[in-house]
Amino acid sequence: MSALLSGTNVVRNYGATPALRGVDLAVDEGEIVAVTGPSGCGKSTLLHCLAGILRPDAGTVTYRDQNIGLWSEAARSRLRRTDFGVLFQFGQLVPELTAVENVALPLLLAGSGRREARSVAAEWLDRLGVAELAEQRPGAMSGGQQQRCATARALVTQPRVLFADEPTGALDVLTGEQVLGEIVRVARELGTAVVLVTHAASVAAYADREIVLRDGVLDPTGLGLGVAR
């Protein structure tokens, strides 16, 4: 049985500077994989390629046996509104919108009616323990509250894959562990696969498997060598 998501010999350059130099990674249904390594090693670039935000310069990214690198930008954007959820380090909530409006946004973009989208969004805020913030704007929230709301937004479409890029990097240790625990709990409930980028060993410990990047390649001395599953 083939992996749900895989990258094969993924290469990505920024001008003359190589970010990824032939990386292989395969993720199964419901699996949580941590991508670790020092700053600047290509972790976020790999996540962006796997999520279809960036196209690799060489190699392939395959989701459900389809090479999404051949898809148009519009098609890849639709994928991120349906099958993929993306969670960034600083949440990136829309400051002018309330929490419930932020969480409802992916549903509205996918064509849901406003009332239905708000109702489902409110349920997800409750699921992440921040129902009381529904009518608050991000500026009135703590960092941990913002990240819980951002997590609800990333999961509101019940994606097959959640991409989390340093999701606790802007939080203190205790709040970060609480937020990460919520991410893992909900992902397990949904059977969602997670690609988790982090530089922290304590965060990577939540994953089923870890791969280590150094200078844009898999580190053979690290855990999770190659695409072993």
UniProtKB/TrEMBL annotation:
GO terms for cellular component: plasma membrane. It comes from Paractinoplanes toevensis. Residues 5-229 form the ABC transporter domain. Keywords: ATP-binding, Nucleotide-binding, Transport. The keyword ATP-binding applies. This is ABC transporter ATP-binding protein. One of its GO terms (molecular function) is ATP binding.
